[in-house]
Amino acid sequence: MVWKPPKTDWKDNDVPTSIDFNRIEENIKENNNIAIGSGVPKGAILMWSGSNTTIPSGWALCNGINGTPDLRDRFIVGAGRAYSIGATGGEKEVKLTEAQMPKHSHTGSTSYSGSHTHTYKGFPPRQGYGIPTGSSGWYEESKNITTDSGGSHSHSFSTNTIGSDQPHENRPPYYALAFIMKL
Q: Which of 95, 81, 59 is nearest to 178 (CA)?
């Protein structure tokens, strides 16, 4: 359809004809086409909240068909210094490496002083072992034995490994819309 100039030289007793009404109807349709489609350049991509089956004529779902990029399940990033138009990237899941973990340390300590002793109840060598005697405690011939000082010493230890080394999702909260492109 092409825009047709409206009649502007009406006289007082002129009566519109079917040609005049057809011209008005055609001009309204053409104005709608201009407003709906021509104002948006070919290749423009918009977010669409309607059903994929009700995409307007002259538009296509961005699914990698009909010359559209496949934007299904994708976030959009602005092209510029870091990303050129059409670049893709990112991962659905991320598995952190040791280099990506924050710097941290694990600490612990033990006493290194050996100048202490321990006392325990023992039995004379002839008994060979201790025997509990009910409410009276140990066998009556027991005596206190003190150990020698141990001297300075240290202990080494390690911590348990935790975590399951599994990838994780790194996605912000979202609301899904379809992308459509002007053909």
A: 59
Q: What angle do CA 121, 124, 128 make, to 5 degrees?
A: 95
Determine the Cα–Cα distance for residues 158 and 28; give it in Å rounded to an integer.
81
User: Is 180 part of any domain?
Assistant: yes
Distances (CA, A) of 166 to 3, 51, 93, 95, 97: 63, 36, 10, 6, 11
Residue 149 within any structural domain of the chain: no
Domain hosting 55: range is 42-69+173-183
Whether residue 142 is contained in a domain is answered as no
pTM (predicted TM-score): 0.49
Residues 6+ apart with CB under 8 A from 146: 117, 118, 119
Give the chain's domain count: 1
pLDDT, one tens digit per residue, over 94-141 is 888 888 888 877 777 666 666 666 666 655 554 445 555 555 554 555
Please enumerate in sequence order all residues whose Cβ is within 8 A of that of 26, keeping only pairs 6 or more positions apart, or say none. Answer: 1, 4
Residue 125 lies in a domain: no
Going by C-beta distance under 8 Å and a sequence separation of 6 or more, which residues neighbour residue 83?
Answer: 77, 89
